[in-house]
Design goal:
- The protein is mostly helical and 308 residues long.
- The chain has a single domain (2-153, 163-307), classed as NCX, central ion-binding region (A middle domain of Talin 1, Up-down Bundle).
- The protein has 9 helices and 4 strands; from the N terminus they run H-H-E-H-E-H-H-H-H-E-H-E-H.
- The strands form 2 sheets. The chain has a two-stranded antiparallel ribbon.
- Helix 1 (2-60) packs across helix 4 and helix 3 (104-124) runs parallel beside helix 7 (229-254).
- The longest helix has 59 residues, at 2-60.
- It starts with a helix and ends with a helix.
Length: 308
C-alpha cells in the first residue's frame, strides 16, 4: 500500500510539471497567436486530451455510461469549481476582478451553439451516429472559424518568440499529461473503490477531477504569470468544454445508440451549467461573488444528482 501512495504522489507531481510546461509555453505563444487560438483551440484541445482518450477507450469497451459520465462531468466541474477558483485566485493575485479578452466573443457564440445542440439532443433523447456527426461538425466549424479569424486578424508579436522552446514545453507537457492522467484516473478509481464509492460517482465526479486537475493547475500558473493569464485560462476552459459538448458526446454516438432517457437529470444539469457560465460571463467579467456562487452550484448539482 505504501508503494501505491508513493506512485500516487509521484503521478501528481508529474501532472504539476506537465501543467507548468504547458502554462509557460502557452503564455509565450499567446503573444504570437492571440488568446483565441492559444486558449480556445490549443490549450483547450491539449487539456481535453485525457478525457477524450478516456471517453474513446470507454466507448470502445462498450462502457457508454462511464464514457457519458466522464464527458459531461468535466463540463460540470470545470464550469463551476474550475471557473470559480480561477476568479478567486485571480482576485487574490491581482486585487481586481477578472475581465475576459475580446476574443471570448467567439467562444461565447460557439458555447451558445453547442448548448442549443445539447437541448435538441436531449429532446431527441438519443446519442447515435446522426447526433454524433452533427455534434462533431459543430466543433469542426468552431476550429475553422477560429483559424479564419486568426488569419484575418493576426496579432503582431510584441517580442521575439523562441518557437523551439515553446514547442518543447508544449509537446513534453502534453505527452506527460496524456500518460500521467491515465494513471491518475486509475489510481483515483482504486482509492474510490476501496472506499465503496459507486461507479457512477467515479465517472461523474472523481474521474473528471483527475482529468481536469492539470487544466486547473495550468490555469493557476497562467494567472500567476501575467494579468492576461486569467482570461487565457477561462478561454481554454470554454474551448475544451465546447469540445466536450460536441466531440466527446459525439464519439459516444458514433459507437452505438445511447439512450439519454435514464440520464435526463445529468443532461439538464449540463445545460444549466452552460447557461450559468454564459450568464456570468455575459459582460466578460468574473467577480468574486460570481466565482463563489459557481463553486456552491457544483455542490448543489452533485447532491441533487445523487438523490435524483
Amino acid at each position: 500500500m505504501l508503494l501505491f501512495w508513493v506512485e500516487f504522489i509521484g503521478t501528481f507531481i508529474g501532472l504539476f510539471i506537465s501543467a507548468e510546461l504547458i502554462a509557460k509555453g502557452a503564455d509565450e505563444l499567446e503573444e504570437v497567436l492571440g488568446q483565441g487560438i492559444t486558449g480556445g483551440i490549443l490549450l483547450g484541445f491539449i487539456t481535453a486530451l485525457p478525457e477524450t482518450i478516456f471517453v474513446i477507450i470507454a466507448s470502445l469497451g462498450g462502457s457508454l455510461d462511464v464514457a457519458f459520465g466522464s464527458a459531461i462531468g468535466g463540463n460540470i466541474l470545470l464550469f463551476t469549481v474550475g471557473a470559480g477558483l480561477v476568479g478567486i485566485v485571480y482576485f487574490w493575485k491581482w486585487k481586481n476582478n477578472l475581465v475576459m479578452d475580446q476574443e471570448y466573443q467567439v467562444e461565447n457564440k460557439f458555447l451558445i451553439i453547442s448548448t442549443v445542440a445539447l437541448v435538441l439532443i436531449t429532446l431527441y433523447s438519443k446519442l447515435n451516429v446522426i447526433a454524433g456527426v452533427c455534434l462533431i461538425l459543430i466543433y469542426v466549424y468552431y476550429v475553422i472559424y477560429r483559424l479564419r479569424k486568426f488569419k484575418r486578424d493576426k496579432p503582431i508579436a510584441k517580442k521575439e518568440v523562441d518557437y523551439v522552446k515553446i514547442s518543447i514545453f508544449m509537446v513534453v507537457g502534453a505527452i506527460l499529461l496524456i500518460i500521467l492522467s491515465h494513471y491518475f484516473v486509475e489510481q483515483l478509481d482504486q482509492i474510490s473503490l476501496s472506499f465503496g464509492i459507486p461507479a457512477v460517482w467515479i465517472s461523474l465526479v472523481l474521474s473528471p477531477i483527475a482529468g481536469e486537475l492539470e487544466e486547473k493547475i495550468s490555469a493557476f500558473r497562467l494567472i500567476t504569470l501575467s494579468k492576461k493569464g486569467g482570461s487565457l485560462s477561462l478561454l481554454s476552459f470554454v474551448g475544451s468544454k465546447i469540445e466536450n459538448n460536441t466531440v466527446l458526446l459525439g464519439i459516444i454516438g458514433l459507437f452505438g445508440d445511447y439512450s439519454l432517457r435514464p440520464v435526463i437529470p445529468e443532461m439538464v444539469s449540463l445545460i444549466l451549467v452552460n447557461v450559468s457560465v454564459l450568464r456570468v460571463l455575459f459582460d466578460r467579467k468574473l467577480t468574486v461573488l460570481e466565482s463563489s456562487l459557481l463553486i456552491i452550484a457544483y455542490a448543489v448539482i452533485i447532491i441533487a444528482l445523487y438523490y435524483l
